[in-house]
Amino acid sequence: MKPIISFQHYGFKYKNQSEPTLKDITLDVYPGEKIWIAGPSGSGKSTLAHCINGLIPFTYGGETSGSLIVGGEEPVNLSIFELSRTVGTILQDQDSQFVGLSVGEDVAFVMENKALPREQMKVDVVTALNMVDMLDYIEHSPYELSGGQKQHVSLAGVLSTDAEVLLFDEPLANLDPASGRLAMQLIDDIHRDRGKTIIIIEHRVEDVLQQPVDRIVLMNEGSIAVVGTPDEILSSGVLRQYGLRPPLYADALEYAGIALDAIKGLSIPQKLDVAGLKDTLNAWSERSGVKPEGARREPLLSAQQLTFGYNLEHPVVRDASLNIGAGEIVALLGNNGAGKSTLSQLITGILKPQSGKLTFAGEDISSWSIRRRGEQIGYVMQNPNRMITQHMISEEVGLGLKVRGIAASEIQERVEQVLKVCGLYAFRNWPVSALSYGQKKRLSIAAILVLEPKLIILDEPTAGQDYQHYKEFMDFIHTLSEQGVGFLLITHDMYLALEYADRAIVLHDGRIIAEDTVAAVLSNQEVTSAARLKETSLSLFAKANDLTSPAQFVQAFINEEKKGKAHE
Ligand SMILES: Nc1ncnc2c1ncn2[C@@H]1O[C@H](COP(=O)(O)OP(=O)(O)OP(=O)(O)O)[C@@H](O)[C@H]1O
Ligand SMILES: Nc1ncnc2c1ncn2[C@@H]1O[C@H](COP(=O)(O)OP(=O)(O)OP(=O)(O)O)[C@@H](O)[C@H]1O
Hints:
The protein is α/β, with parallel strands linked by helices. It is 38% helix and 21% strand. The strands form 4 sheets. It has a 6-stranded mixed β-sheet, with helices on both faces. It has a 6-stranded mixed β-sheet with strand order 15-16-17-12-18-19, with helices on both faces. It has a 4-stranded antiparallel β-sheet with strand order 11-10-13-14, with helices on one face.
């Protein structure tokens, strides 16, 4: 069989870079294969994707070496339009992908590549939106959608193209866990039913492995480091080395003193057979799974019965009351469109509640300006491209300090320190445009951290981050919390919540439907299904293997992780 994509000793250097970003890439992808590309942030995954879909060289110029064939042709000999007949893409930054005035038009636009008759197109748009549960939004403007809803619409667009190759750059980043599962399922259905070739770039190991993958390609520093099947890669233990987090149940097995290379079929927690090891696992969870006591905290932010609607008939935040204490990390969980970003904007003052009250350290802040609130409450939005305004990296981080009249020497010192913490120091003299998405995300966080607010709202802080940066960053957040900074973490990553949050607040349809420890919230079936959350692989594994107490097994894992943090 002839490969549909063939890289031979391929290299690429962006025109404004001195070193090549891709080096000596040799990879054949065959029709009907499902490939998962992973690797550290900045390793060149999106660049590789851009070479396949033609954004390189059409949008991003530079020099290539070696050869690349896509669908039997060299991309440079085609127009980007011709190439889009072979390769359909979902980009990392969806905001840049919308062209139509309404959701329906947008999906239709993708289909126009197929030049379908109008009537047929209408039917197809409806079918595609229905598949991703977004039909109700067909007339809405893409700019009125929540982050996850935009992601659903992009998926609908790509799923309905005729392209033979579908390329997904972080398709799960903004999706709630249930939608993430649905997305992986849809991708898999299309892969099997229509024989499409699928290429997925993702950091979320467990989420990708919910469906079978043929090969994993691990990239590092612009080259291909390892290629293998999921089982091969998981049992070889190389994931961490390439910026990926191993599945939690695999870590739990190691904590319990079990060697992974002896275990077969590691990629599916429900099928993994550990019959002979049950006693070891039970003993470990009993020993390590003691539930810790909650600490008492000084109240920082208090919201009482906030209500807000973009239009008056339909409030999207209803009667929401919550407290965040100094030094507390609170996870705000909930389905796409539940109202999480809207609630954050009420807290930061970008939006004004129709009713309700907000106090900060006991003081009513309703009359505070956005600027004054910003000194106490930092807000990092989901999409970094919406936050970044400056051309150079250190200017971006220093801007807030400059506006506040801080002396240049102090600005430089604080900026450098924050850049170090955020793993961006090496790039301090770079233009923002040369950063990868994950790097930009860290930049937008750095620009807030430098202002030293007392409460920080982080919307999907780790989306698009590789594991090493995720861990470094979250450990840093943890340290700040020990110094008294409060955090509201909006996340669809249940593991992030589980490991780092003291407490979870669950929002559904604008209302707070649960407030408890994360482990407790995630084991409450009613809450998880309403808010489209997900049982962790730890409890799936514990149940499938009939361990004595799945809850204790989960707690044992959390305790071990926290112990690990305390040692570092
Ligand atoms: N438009 C650009 N101009 C110049 N250099 C770029 C550009 N985009 C990316 N780069 C360079 O290529 C490197 C790899 O970026 P790329 O987006 O391919 O990484 P990635 O592996 O997809 O990272 P992430 O997981 O953070 O999205 C960056 O560190 C940067 O040096
Ligand atoms: N500017 C706007 N105009 C009108 N409606 C909006 C606007 N922004 C958001 N909405 C609607 O308000 C609801 C809540 O959106 P919000 O962005 O707060 O959700 P979210 O919980 O943050 O979702 P996600 O997890 O997908 O980011 C959604 O139904 C959305 O369509």
